[in-house]
Amino acid sequence: MTSLPRIAAAAALLLTVANAARAEDLCTARQPAPGAVVRGPVLPVRDGETLCVALGATPDLWLPVRLAQTTPAPTAAAPSPTPAAH
What local confidence, expressed as pLDDT, does residue 50 receive? Predict the structure, then answer.
């Protein structure tokens, strides 16, 4: 028999997932001036390129932010092992 706390936990999880999916579509804050510093909790990353920053509690204060495309820095090749002296 399933206990009531397990049912409540499952329901809360489903509501959280549903709300997170909706939150991604609701980032509707106006863009700040170029160069402005934006601080706030990061909400779910939409697609690997876009995320929302919460400037307040409601979706009209959630700022959509597109991440800049960057190329990864080249990694330095590991030095070749030197043969051990015999």
Answer: 87
